[in-house]
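To whoever is covering the structure queue this week,

Two jobs came back overnight. Logging them here so there's a record in the thread.

Job A:
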Amino acid sequence: MSRAGHEQPPHGQAPGDAVPGIDRERVTGWMVRNIESAIPPFRFEPIPGGNSNLTYRVRGAGGTEYALRRPPLGHVLATAHDVAREFRIISALGGTGVPVPPALGLCSDPAVNGAPFYVMGFVAGLVPHDRTAGSSMTPDDRRSLGEDAVAVLAVLHSLDPDDIGLGELGRREAYVHRQLRRWSRQWEASKQRDLPVMDRVRTLLENRIPTQRRTGVVHGDFRFGNLIVKNGKIGAVVDWELCTLGDPMTDLGYLANDWIDPGGPELWRSSVVQDGGFQPMEEMVARYAALTGADVSELSYYRAMQAWRLAAILEGVYARYRHGVMDNISGVDLPSLAGSVERLAGFALEALEGGAGPAP
């Protein structure tokens, strides 16, 4: 969960300063050899805000700018943070109508920088990752962004994976079953304390899995914090680390959890929607249904499933911060992060016990 857009870089950094996660000499040599028009020296600046793969803004002597993505520092779960896979996805999506940064080059040799990395074009704009970040948006831009977010998601879900070279990205059937297995394993590997509510929710989710009616390319983390926005339009969707083939309704459920209408409760962090100017969530869902023809009657199940999954993800983030794997611990409120896991699990349980999804 990373940014690739608007955050301002640290002031006063000289081109020769050490940057955690970047071997300046070797990365510079690789970029000169592999990225057209890349002119050294390069200034590498971490883009703050990410909790997973690390993103850097790269400024070249010729005035060109790039974004570089690499895995977190230290040990990570074996199947996580596959930047080569992420590069393949944004390469395939270029020109499909889904806005993504231009994919420029992939380095698979860990000898260059200690881990694989890739370089993409830098897309400037606002990343409205929370209520404060989106405060500068005008009412017209807010309305426009709400419409565009739904339209882009509908375009993504309309793509035939085989037509864009992603037919082998993952298994197509039983997506929710596989997600529950995957994040159950992550929860068990990462959990820092016992939370019986997580086990209770997992049991209910397993007993109430809806029939998968459609299969498509699923982003896996489609929320406002992964959109780079300019003048109310999406310039790029970023952070494709969790993308695979599966049930598109899971993306809609995730976006719905980020679509916090004014006065609504926060599950994880605040939302740009809270300040008003956006369509009500019900209108967003109806628009998605109209654009895709999808049956959205079981959305509550997908919201619960995504809240539980995000709780498992954030517990992994919490674990990495506690054990010093993440390099941007300054300013991180660990008790608040732990509390977010508990709130998300509680929301999922409430939704399921309230009758969301088909009866077991």
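Job B:
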Amino acid sequence: MNLHTKTNNVLRKRVTLVVLAASLASMSYVVSAGSAGAASNPGFVLYSSQGYDHASVNAFNATKPGFTVTLNDNSTGPLMQQIQAEGNNPKWGVLWVDGASAFSQLDGQGKLLRNSVPKVKFNSLGLQNVPKHKSFTPTGLTVTGALCYDSSQITAAQLPSSWSQLTSAQYKGLVGMNDPSQSGPTYPMIAGLMAYMGNYKSGSTAKSVAAGESFFTALKANGLVVNSTNGPTIAAMEAHTISMATVQSSACYGAALTNFASMKVKYLNPSIALPSVIGINGKQPKVVREDAQKFVDWVLSPAGQSVMQTADPQGDSLFWPVIKGENPANSIIPPLSSTHAISTNPYTWGKLETQVNTWFDSNIVNGL
């Protein structure tokens, strides 16, 4: 190789290195700019167990708010397990499930954004379910503990008139319910029954928990059938494995509106009021919290309420509204007063959820 050729090769290598460096710098700028853009407006992940959540997310995203809501849909139990597993590295931006006990726990851990309740006109149902620190928001109301029954198997006259009668021999093997570790509506029902059976007013809940454990132990001895969630429990009635079950009101009305015309509802005294609740992760960056607030505001708007009431017409859309001027979507939903619904304090009973669910799974679901 002569000197001239060697010099040219050196020059070409230097030019190539300069071009490569410039290209890398340009790519780095693009990535950095993209990352900065994403960080400034990333959107958030919605963790939800609601039957209308897909439609709600699609409708909201179609409004082109400048960010995208991504949905993680699952039953309440697995969602809460996921949130707890994420610990100090949360993926969720908003949680939307039935029952306030999960939110009271998150609020007690300092994980919820307080003062996040939209400035809307709640009716009395809504006002009753807005917490002191406004750290989560009621979006609708159903009833848990509705006695759903197949009228082709058992007549209204043959039904029990009280909870205690469910443990009598005439109903042996006929009664079903859901697993509170999987089904969001079920722990609030158990907590409400414990409070009622133990005549809980204030102070220690130990007496109420003991009374509830005694009742469910007797129910188990009488052949109680436990399935994971509303769907399998309703299916067990369709298969005539059981003839009645204590489930969420919307699940029973939904079955009656589809292909299960013999499905009816009786409300024992009491049933338990069950708000659908939405809350924002207060540990996310400010821009994520602001985006999340826009979604929560939209859910409580007329447009958001319309999607909630129409997107799952044989399921979760069958609720009592919490906004003034809104009415139930279907005439199958009776006046709430006919349900004998009572409310429990989620901050009192939320603290006991893990304890009660663990006992229930050990002694009722898996017990001999």
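Note for Job B: The beta strands are 44-48, 69-73, 92-98, 137-150, 175-178, 225-227, 244-248, 263-266, 271-280, 341-342.

Please reply-all if you pick these up so we don't duplicate work.
Q.
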